[in-house]
């Protein structure tokens, strides 16, 4: 496995394989890297991008402080993982500016954008192993902070979920949301550790009409 570095002082013509020759964009590092590789973003730098991946990467900061990720538009995510397991996101800050609200309790797109999204739409009973989100900060407006959803099938979803030690605030609806289009959420997600997260100052107290959705947490004001 290889490690790629990204810096606002970098160049996508660089190899990205050392601190002295970083890529300029996260997209450039994703393109150069392979499944399972690590992408490190320079602490304190801001990267305005929306990247969707179908194979896992491990994202983290290097240097001093956390790198800051912002979406390419108000209606977009920062990172999205589609139909893959093993992705890890650690020690990053995500900032958004979307002030929209959910308007359809059966459409997962209504709960977007989220800072980081995991989607399983393979259907059937496929469960992807490995979803890690630790020690991150989500601030500013996203509709949802962390959004994990399974769209199709009967028991497709994720296993070995770790969402810990994150601070999430000023989202318009949800801090952490695990959602499924059909069947109970309990049938979709196995071996989940969701602990020591601080979620506060959600703009709306929004409650879906369905009772089988897992939302963490919905604080009282």
Biggest β-sheet: strands ordered side by side in the sheet? 1-2-5-8-11-14-17
Bulk shape: globular
Total tally of structural domains: 1
Going by helix content, strand content and strand pairing, the class is mainly beta
Sequence stretches where pLDDT stays below 50 over 5 or more residues? 208-221
User: How many whole angstroms does the radius of gyration measure?
Assistant: 17 Å
**Biggest sheet details:** 7 strands, parallel
Count the E strands.
Answer: 19
Mean pLDDT score: 88
Strand content: 35-45%
Query: What portion of residues is helical?
Result: under 10%
The SSE order reads: EHEEEEEEEEEEEEEEEEEE
How far from one another are the termini? 46 Å
- Total helix count? 1
Kindly list the characteristics that best describe this protein.
221 residues; mainly beta; 1 helix; 19 strands; disordered C terminus
Task: Explain how this protein is built.
The protein is built from 1 helix and 19 strands. The strands form 3 sheets. Strands 1-2-5-8-11-14-17 form a 7-stranded parallel beta sheet, with helices on one face. It has 221 residues and is mainly beta. The chain has one domain (39-216). 3% of the residues lie in helices and 43% in strands. Strand 1 (3-6), helix 1 (26-32) and strand 2 (38-42) form a beta-alpha-beta unit. It starts with a strand and ends in a 5-residue tail after the last strand.
What is the strand and helix layout of this fold?
Blueprint: E1 3-6, H1 26-32, E2 38-42, E3 46-48, E4 51-53, E5 58-62, E6 67-70, E7 79-82, E8 87-90, E9 92-97, E10 114-120, E11 127-134, E12 137-141, E13 144-150, E14 157-164, E15 167-169, E16 174-180, E17 189-195, E18 198-200, E19 214-216
Parallel strand pairs: 1-2, 2-5, 3-6, 4-7, 5-8, 6-9, 7-10, 8-11, 9-12, 10-13, 11-14, 12-15, 13-16, 14-17, 15-18
Antiparallel strand pairs: 16-19
């Amino acid at each position: 496995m290889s490690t790629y570095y990204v810096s606002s002082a970098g160049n996508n013509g660089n190899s990205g394989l050392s601190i002295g020759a970083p890529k300029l964009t996260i997209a450039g590092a994703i393109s150069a890297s392979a499944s399972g590789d690590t992408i490190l973003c320079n602490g304190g730098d801001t990267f305005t991008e929306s990247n969707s991946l179908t194979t896992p990467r491990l994202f983290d900061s290097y240097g001093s402080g956390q790198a800051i990720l912002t979406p390419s538009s108000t209606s977009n995510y920062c990172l999205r993982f589609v139909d893959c397991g093993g992705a890890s996101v650690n020690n990053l800050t995500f900032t958004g500016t979307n002030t929209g609200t959910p308007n359809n309790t059966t459409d997962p797109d209504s709960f977007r954008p989220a800072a980081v999204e995991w989607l399983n739409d393979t259907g059937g009973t496929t469960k992807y192993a490995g979803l890690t989100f630790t020690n991150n900060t989500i601030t500013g407006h996203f509709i949802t902070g962390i959004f994990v959803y399974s769209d199709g099938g009967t028991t497709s979803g994720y296993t070995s979920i770790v969402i810990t030690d994150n601070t999430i605030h000023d989202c318009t609806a949800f801090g952490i949301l695990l959602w499924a289009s059909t069947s109970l959420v309990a049938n979709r997600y196995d071996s989940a550790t969701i602990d020591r997260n601080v979620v506060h100052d959600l703009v709306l107290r929004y409650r879906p009409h369905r009772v089988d959705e897992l939302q963490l947490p919905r604080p009282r004001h």
